[in-house]
Amino acid sequence: MLIESSLFFNQITRIILIISTPLLLASLITGLIVSFIQSVTQINEQSLSFLPKIIAVFFVLSFCGPWMLHYLKDFTINLLSNSLYMFI
Fold first, then answer.
1. Extents of the domains making up the chain
2. Which end of the chain is more exposed for a tag (fewer CB within 10 A), N or C?
């Protein structure tokens, strides 16, 4: 029982990392680009970086959203189908 629980939490952690990576990378890259542009132009306004990050995350979410939902759906189906065997 302990081994199955450990594998289950390992799988959950891996799925969280896989699902969140595209959004985090889009935000990171956009933030770096905006910070570089701000440092070159010497504009030190902190609120300028939020709108490009939101737009980038929305674009990546609209592009990768179906893949993320499919991945989560498969995991949920697998979890529910194996939950009877896991807790008996």
1. 2-86
2. C
Dist CA 60 CA 55 (whole Å): 9
Cβ atoms of 27 and 61 within 8 Å: the answer is no
> How many CB atoms are located within 10 Å of the residue 44 CB?
8
DSSP string, the chain: -HHHHHHHHHHHHHHHHHHHHHHHHHHHHHHHHHHHHHHHHT---GGGGHHHHHHHHHHHHHHHHHHHHHHHHHHHHHHHHHHHHH--
Block residue for tokens 């959004």: 23
**Cα dihedral 59, 61, 67, 69 in deg (nearest 10):** -150
Q: What is the pTM of this model?
A: 0.78
Q: Is the pLDDT of residue 77 over 60?
A: yes
